[in-house]
Design goal:
The chain has 498 residues and is α+β, with helices and mostly antiparallel strands. The protein has helices at 4-13, 17-31, 39-45, 52-59, 76-89, 141-149, 167-172, 180-183, 186-189, 218-221, 255-267, 280-291, 309-325, 333-341, 371-383, 421-441, 453-456, 460-479; strands at residues 36-38, 69-71, 93-96, 113-116, 123-127, 132-136, 153-154, 190-196, 202-204, 230-237, 239-240, 244-251, 274-278, 299-306, 329-330, 358-367, 393-398, 405-414.
Length: 498
Amino acid sequence: MVTQDHDAYRRSQTMSQATLASIASELARIVGADRVWSGQQAQQRYPGDKSWLTIVHAHYGRPLNQPELAAAPETVEQVSDIMRLASRTKLPVTPLGGGSGVQGAANANLGGLLLDLSNLNRIREIDESSLTCTVECGMNIMAFDAELSKRGLTFTHDPASAEWASIGGAIAARGSGVLSTRYGNIQDHVLSLEVVLPDGQVAHLPAVPRHGAGPELSQLFVGSEGVLGIVTAARVKLQRQPKARRFSAIQFPSLAAGIAAGHEIMTTGLRPAVIRLYDAKSTALSLAKIVGSSFDSETMVLMVEGQHETLVDLESDTCRQICKAHGGRILDDQVGRLWWENRYDMSRPPHTPQLPQIWMTMDAVSDFRSIEGLYHGVTQAVAESIDPKWGLTVKTHLSHWFEWGAMIYSRVIVPRGPENLDEAVALHDQIVAAAARATLAAGGVINDHHGVGMRLAPHMAAQFGAGGMSLLQGVKSGLDPQGILCPGKLGLSCRVPV
């Protein structure tokens, strides 16, 4: 996971204890001495994100997250002052939100400063006329939605990690949520951003997106994982809480039949809030546990919601008729309702995996023309990626749908990995590489919404090509010529200062 480029950068960035002490003193002046930590204290306070890579390295005493300093600002002005200090001292900076990521992006794996943004957690303004809100990056998503609910409003970005994730983290990783089929991924919620640039300047981007005033700059920072700038606040879209919901569950004779039904729903103007299509293995091992029933074939859960009950009923009935026309058998509505009530159980104990297991989610996205090939190619490649003796299992569902395509979400488990860290990581990387190659061969994109992090960084060049990586590197170099923000992330080279 660590390249020679990273090693050279780390050596070049090594600062004396006197220099680090001086920087710590400056940080204390900016944010207060009680919100600055050094050395082991910083590393113990911030163990890293929730990725398998982070957890397994920490377990073996070789943590990926190795900040030399950590600081927790409370205002955008403090973030700006910190970045001016970092720019002046060439101090690498890695921003941290809720720490719920599963790709390793929030690790300060090359040292420097870990910038804890969780104290930037205020709602600055709610505009009930426009149904928008300006909210700071450290606001927890579940807490944010709870505040909105007091006004009969809701934030329809609803990821499984909502109780840990921050608004800024969702933006940085280009996250998604269970309601994305109707309301979109996080980029569809973002209207404008406040961003602190690497030199400390604060950019307040235009209040509304995608209008004729030049390029859409806010979206440049969505999915950039802190490499280009630090998002400190966002103006986001809200919705009124739905007045009606209808749940359905449908069994299909094959995955192809379920995909065909989803395709017709999405390409004929219907927009259910949820379409989740489980393959046979995922139906048996995941869905059945969530709803407390047994199933013997591919199953779709579907939910329609909205403000107008008549329209919700009509849309739900139309979706059901489409599913029946593709061979679907309508199950009791209670199956869909139970799924909704327990939808995140598989992300919480006792269902969460534990070491010495190896686990990961490999999501990929494509247009409808390629989606079946993507599913079969990735599923087969993952299943055959390592020796059968390891007992790997892969179960897949399609959980985010668009008017042009869909995504596959594969959960991969190795029941017991090697006892040696390097061997375990090599096995992990072998699975990831197989999935990435199969995704690209099928015409897909290697990730839908979990971000790149350390897991997928080695595959960014294959995804973007030489021209794409040159473009991305050019943007990075233009905004961050000293390479201090998240060095080496997104598969970009580290700038080694002269």
